User: Fold this.
Amino acid sequence: MASLRSKLSVLLFLVVLTAHVTEAAVRSKLSGDESTCESKDATLNLRSSKRTSGAAGPEPGDPAAAFTVPTLDGEFTYKPGTLRGPLIIHAFTNKSGFLECLWSSEPSLTSLVQDLPDSTQVLFLSLDDSAASDALWMRDQVHRAAVQHSKKEVLSRLHFSALPAFALGNWIPSVFYNWGCVSHNCLLAQAVFTSQGWRLPIVIKRLDARYDWLMGHWTQSLYQLRDAGDGCDPSPSVAGAVAWVSEGGCSFFTKVQNMAKSNASGVLVYALPGNPIQDMNCVGDECITALGIPAAMVHLEVSVAQGLQSGQQVYVSFQNTPSPYYFFSIDQQGLLAEMGWFLYPSFSFLNWQAQW
Ligand SMILES: *[C@@H]1O[C@H](CO)[C@@H](O)[C@H](O)[C@H]1NC(C)=O
Ligand SMILES: *[C@@H]1O[C@H](CO)[C@@H](O)[C@H](O)[C@H]1NC(C)=O
Assistant:
């Protein structure tokens, strides 16, 4: 029975895989067609002469065309020649653990409200169907930080689109979808859980711990996952496996150190229900103690927790899926510019880049 089931799940996996491959092939055909269609339309004047073939849309260095976007606080209109400083355009998606943390972390939000250069404006969008609630949430996050730091004046320079990027009907989405993003932080970092008896893998977002104290990197392997409570004490059962530990009780560093001592291959720290994914950080002396295993933060996934509790074998692997671009800007001269990527989830990098 078990072997039949595993054969069935392999079969199912192959079917799913084939479906994806076909879809991808169709999509790449479609996007080829799309560029021929688009070359006939009015966005032609935006296209840079540098572009020879392939995807449509403006390139870095091209002049940005005028646009209007409905926002939570009325219409936002960009007209060439009217900027006092850069206009940064950011697309949010909650499919990214990095962006979730960027928008949840207090130091990150504080930096946005305190240090955004005076002449800089930011237009915030969402890539997803949940754009309306995403926009309200983003505005609430900055409102709270602005009130707390008596920086309410910054709010007049922050604009929150009420429509998702795919519904804008202008050139902005083509930049998010077509500008290649090379840095690892703009891939969607994910953890993939499998177990016998599950019809499909469970794929969730993760945010890798980033500091020098973590020397390890996830490899292509399939790891066994083992529960190690809150990870505040060593746990011999995790040897050779990835440890599944809850947040809280002790520092992230202590958890990873305990799991490393227990010979774990890596650590997944899950957020307690309702809490955001955090940037797993070190404090003081911790930062000069190197630990040899990788670690990442994820949300609590109920099926995974239940599987482990009931003694089921659960496996985890790690993957990175390409995602749209998240940030670009229109400089004071009205030209489109790429933004370098953020080293870790903090708006301080946005402020820094807005100065150039
Ligand atoms: C983002 O996703 C997490 C879980 O995946 C959820 O807890 C959180 O509420 C979401 N945030 C927004 C703004 O939708
Ligand atoms: C970890 O591995 C080392 C070296 O193989 C071994 O000596 C030690 O007993 C192991 N510790 C645990 C907790 O499994």
User: Anything to note?
Assistant: Residues 236, 239, 262-263 surround 2-acetamido-2-deoxy-beta-D-glucopyranose (ligand 2) (CB under 6 Å). The two ends are 64 Å apart (CA to CA). Confidence is low (pLDDT under 50) at residues 1-54.
